[in-house]
Automatic annotation (TrEMBL):
Protein name per UniProt: Ion-translocating oxidoreductase complex subunit D
Entry keyword Cytoplasm: no
Gene responsible for this protein: rsxD
Superkingdom of origin organism: Bacteria
Bilayer topology term: Multi-pass membrane protein
Membrane-crossing segments per the record: 20-41, 71-89, 125-142, 193-217, 224-242, 254-271, 283-301, 307-325
Organism the protein comes from: Zestomonas insulae
UniProt keyword list: Cell inner membrane, Cell membrane, Electron transport, Flavoprotein, FMN, Membrane, Phosphoprotein, Translocase, Transmembrane, Transmembrane helix, Transport
Function: Part of a membrane-bound complex that couples electron transfer with translocation of ions across the membrane.
Amino acid sequence: MALPRITSPHTTGSNRTQRVMLQVLLAAAPGAFVLCWLYGFGTLINLLWASAVALGCEAAMLKLRGRPVQFFLRDGSALVTAVLLALALPPYAPWWLTLIATAFAIVFGKQLYGGLGQNPFNPAMVGYVVALVSFPMAMSTWPQAQFVGPWDALQQILGITSLPDGWSHATALDALQHNHSLTMEELRSSNPAFGGFGGAGAEWVNLAFLAGGLYLLYRKLFTWHAPVGMLAALAVLSLLCWNGNGSDSNGSPLFHLLSGATMLGAFFIVTDPVSGATSNRGRLIFGAGVGILIYLIRTWGGYPDGVAFAVLLMNLAAPTIDYYTRPRTYGHRKADRGFKIGE
């Protein structure tokens, strides 16, 4: 009798890693397009530069580890890490900042743990946090929405010229976090960082990433549990702590959902199958934990947007969540959690 040959579902067929990564890149395209439309060619240059750095670092590490370079480069995982990281960085982040963040994400966040499937932390968020902690001013300053041509954008990224005076400003989340005297209406009218519902420009970027995330859900690349858990927890907590228009207001639920990297985190970061929880119930808890931590960091923490820190903290908790949410084995009344002493 001939036995059937069964291969890994991530190497052949419609679920192979390369196809999944290409779908993620396609879903991120609307957000990248809106960022380029709002801020010009800075985002596109960052995407190309981060991709080149990621592929170079990936190839170098694979060579040092004695692994087949072309085989692993073709899976697209390094490219996805670079794209997600570049989309989270300010549009005119200096070239060296993108280099440091991307190299750290690939080398320390991925390859030193053994490569794809072995990393306990989301590599893109590892690189982002390293850049944020090391260079907080450069990471928290965004330009006003204004189109910039490719040559001017390249000069600003290379440091040949700097952003015009009065063009760069703190984000809406940063302005709200440090506000102690102005009402929300006064803050919106006096600060160009605020848009109609969230941050100026950020609300459109978040809607674009929401559209891309819904596409990934439609393609069934992940389940709804982690994104819904994160967004629901963030919305409920911000609603409970919302104080309307007062000067001590922490922002409405709609403001938090459409500001910062909320939708990017919900559909492209917490859905990482490697560093997140594995069961559906575990993913729901994982996402809810991320949403709660995002609000706590945004409101009372030292950084305006807490997506990256929240994800990394919940990455630490993912093994424990998996342990207590392990699905019941067929034929058993409850999940088998291993043998106890004396059994």
